[in-house]
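Q: I'm writing up a methods section and want to include an example of the input and output format. Could you take the sequence below and give the corresponding predicted structure tokens, formatted cleanly so I can copy it straight into the document?
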Amino acid sequence: RTAVGAADREARPRAPEPRPGRTAAGTVSAQSMLAVLARLDDQRDGAFAAGDRALLDQVYAAGSAPLVADRARLAAMVAAGVHANGLALTVRRVDVVAVSATGVRLRVADELSSYALVRRDGSTVQRRPARPLTTWTIRLVRTGGGDDGWRIAAIARA
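A: Here is the clean output for your methods example:
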């Protein structure tokens, strides 16, 4: 599950936020995008915990490079008979960089917890180390209405 880390975000001084932008579906702000990213991260974490690649379709835009990459990672894990246990992404900061009628580009700082690859019987195959705070540029596209209508189209290290 994804922990948002609200206390950490509130404790850090921040530059003034840019004014919210608008898409065809409404207003976009750093706060609204934080909620969207938390939902998408939870769904991605769930896909890797359950070994269910269909859940990735609720996270990524169809045919996107991050979808293809995560499907390959998940397929390798399923083939090896393992799933992720304890995987959690903590979003520390979200800044809205650009807004268009169909999507938004964000600058996101997050951390990844350490986690284990475990077999169905619960035995640990491998422990993976945590990833420190890293900044990304993420492009989200609209695929429907409401917070459920966002999908990740691209991710690049900032």
